[in-house]
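Forum: Protein Structure Q&A
Topic: Joint prediction for protein chains with partners

I've read a bunch of threads here and the consensus seems to be that you should model interacting components together rather than docking separate models afterwards. I'd like to see that in practice. Below is the full input, 560 residues plus whatever partners are listed. Could one of the regulars post the assembled result?
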Amino acid sequence: MSPTDRLRPAVSSPLPRSAAPRTKIEVQGLDFFYGDKQVLFDLHMAIPEHRVTALIGPSGCGKSTFLRTLNRMNEIIEGARMRGRVLLDGQDIYDRSVDVVELRRRVGMVFQRSNPFPKSIFDNVAYGPRVHGERDRTRLAEIVERSLRRAALWDEVAERLDDSAMNLSGGQQQRLCIARALATDPEVLLMDEPASALDPKATAAIEDLIYELKENYTIVIVTHNMQQAARVSDRTAFFYEGRLVEYGETEQVFTRPRNRRTEDYVTGRFG
Amino acid sequence: MNGGMRRGARRAAERIAIWGLRGLVYLLLGAAAYVLGDLIWHGAGALSWEFLTAEPVDGGVRGGIFPAIVGTLWLVLGTAAVALPVGMAAAVYLSEYAREGRLTSWIRVAIVTLAGVPSVVFGLFGLGLFVIFFGFGASVLAGSLTLALLILPVIIVASEEALRAVPQSLREGSLALGATPWQTIWYNVLPCALPGMLTGSILGIARAAGETAPILFTAAAFYLPELPGSVFDQVMALPYHLYILATQHPDPAARPMQYGTALVLVGLVLGLNAFAILWRNRFRRRYRL
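Posted by a regular:
Agreed with the consensus. Here's the joint model:
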């Protein structure tokens, strides 16, 4: 019995499965280019609130690029260009009136390789609130504790918040990065293969955490791990060569895929 | 059989390569040790409390070199005060903000060109621009500005390298939390890069401390027993004093003074370099990069 199995039944979803969840993010006609090379083709996708949506597909299929269009992280790459709309709560995040700083506060991100700042554990988690103007020590301490608790890391680091984050183990570092993302009180959490560099035990801890977090957050996770997608997600999107091939309830995508390529991929025939 | 021979030949080649490289390193160490040893052998006798704290007498044949030490320190501090902010700011702009394009490639060509200009040309340029055109006269200010120009390329290149060594993931992590590019640089990139930036910069400044040609026309006085009161005053400087002692004094009594001056100058430069390296090591341990 893995830790994942033990935790599952104890956590209840805030919404019954049958209730149709509200759409949090809606992508309409998204094309994406690196220079002259088009990497995403006419994507349409509605991502439900307080659910885990998994993006799967072979390397280079565009799933990470797609994830990064959801918080405009692609903008920092030179030569990147896009068409189409990404609506967050009905508002186009690429609209001129949208402040990218505020957008990224609302849409947090956890990267493939944990990237703690070379600062103390406390300063890592307090980084987001600080750059958004929070200066009060007491408030910051509260935020840090709450975020670390939510990321299931508090008990392990409570006694050494002033230690360098670089001294933590790989799994702890990744949970620290999740805590850091939670500290700005986001509504959406984007995760780019958050467990790919971790051992099975640390991976299980992250998966449990994702399961708990969806109660309060909308989560979009990129993974190359089929079992992981099946375990943690409610909905699964299969990307292939820059196109959204299939998107539906995770159970349906894995057990009764409508598309032949999806079936080949989820059954391990290619990828 | 054949393979064994080939292995033997390979091993011989390996041994020759290692010993060849090792020999070159020893040659280098030997040259450095010879210079330093010669300076200590001839110059240590001249070192005394009086030599370090007294004014020169008889054009430097007797007395000490205190004004030259102070003058060089003023020039070093002045150079650092000008070159560090400008050079680091330029490096931050080039590495963090500038998009690769025609303008940035021209800026890079300019930096490389600047690095290739002989120091005496900087001296004459400083004379024309700072001493005469801006009317600073021969002064700490004019000399520092000239030296700053000379070492700007070193500082920019070293700082840019240190900035590029900061992992991209730290920038992304910060931006993804909603930090602005400037907040990302200020709170995250610079603290990581600063030790490397400063180390490269201090090495550049140490080089400026030993330069003669740029201060020849812009700052250095042949003989000036008074210490500078402001940056608009002329100063004595160790490299120039050394040049004078070595070339203008047939008196054999000037030789020990000359070696002593050289020893102090080399000690100052080595001290700056050692400080830079120790400092870098301390920061490396702190950040574990």
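Chain A is about 35% helix and 25% strand.
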